[in-house]
Amino acid sequence: MGLLTAATIRDRMVICTQCQYWSGTDHCLKGHIITTLLGCPIKQFPPVSGAGYAEDHTVAMPQVGCKNCQAMSTAETVLSLAQTFNSWRKAGYELAEATASEQRLNQCKVCAQYSSGRCGICHCYMTLKTKLKTATCPQGQW
Length: 142
Description:
Number of helices: 4
Oligomer: single chain
Shape: elongated
């Protein structure tokens, strides 16, 4: 049997933290623990030393956030975007720490309002908004 190297674990973390099934800890919502020799159950990375792939457990994606919220109107969206960028400008265009940004995005990914990389409330592209240090979730999740 082989062992996972620090580089292999780091490479897996990069892949896993971008996955819709990432739990924000050391395992995914499919039940796979990234430090095992087994490969990703949805084939995002291979097994080590012929260990095979982890079993693909079907799990219900948790849904957080408001399920009956109304999307912002165009005027509200423009105002929200202007306020977000104004706050960011006043803070000196600071970006969030990488781990904070990843945690924010992971929260978005399990939200009932998240679809195709965008928030259904504010209409922002969340891979960008979550990186702005002063930005906030319209539902108060982060």
